[in-house]
Amino acid sequence: MVEKIKNFFKNNSEINLTDGDTKILIKKFLIYALPIIIVGILELLYNSFDLIVVQQKEGTIAGAAVGANGSLITLITNGFIGLSAGANVVISRYYGKGDKNGANRALHSGLLLATICGIIVGITCFFLAGTFLKWMDVSETYIDLSTTYLSIYFLGVPFMLIYNFGAAAFRGVGDSKKPLLFLAISGVLNIALNYLFVFGFNLSVMGVAIATVISQFVSAFLVILFLYINKGFIRFRFKELKFHKHELKRILQIGIPSGIHGITFLFLMLFYKLP
What we know:
The protein is an all-alpha fold.
């Protein structure tokens, strides 16, 4: 079993989606696309895991406090997934051309962008969490608990962005399996920590929020670790972590519209009030 796991990470999981006849391409597409679909679902389920566990222990008020953040968290997640699509497209183009240097410039530009944006967004939203919830008309009964959860959740935003950009880089070279495995590991950890912090340490809403941040850190750590030890088309090196003007411009040109597209409808649903 251990040997199989080692071989999984040693083997090159990259998929070339441009070679082969129709049947082969359909098979490749399904192998590539299914993990991406599952990853999207798992990312959106983090908040649901938290809600289920805290409601089991603390009751409906605590559950409602966590659930009140669900739509806003979905909006944030969709926005970041859309933004990371820019890195995915740029790297995939370089992969198609066989340009390793260009792909790695895009990789490092994207990860640096993710880190800086994640820190700025995380810190800013940490202090504005209560304001967001007031705009959403969250009930006064549990708005304090909701604010506690959301404030702590925002501290994990840098890790979420790093994971999404790292996962986009893997997918850009046709490897969608590793990002799924990393998120599955962090998801299982999230559930385990939820029960530990809520039932073991009686941390209630704060406990599930801390568990989520730790899980997001683990997923970001794993994606960076395996980009570092990767022997395929792209490899991460700390010394190469800098912006490359052309690659950064292309990532933003693709990623910003994609991110806006992902959040527009949800944003209107959250904050637009009918007269």
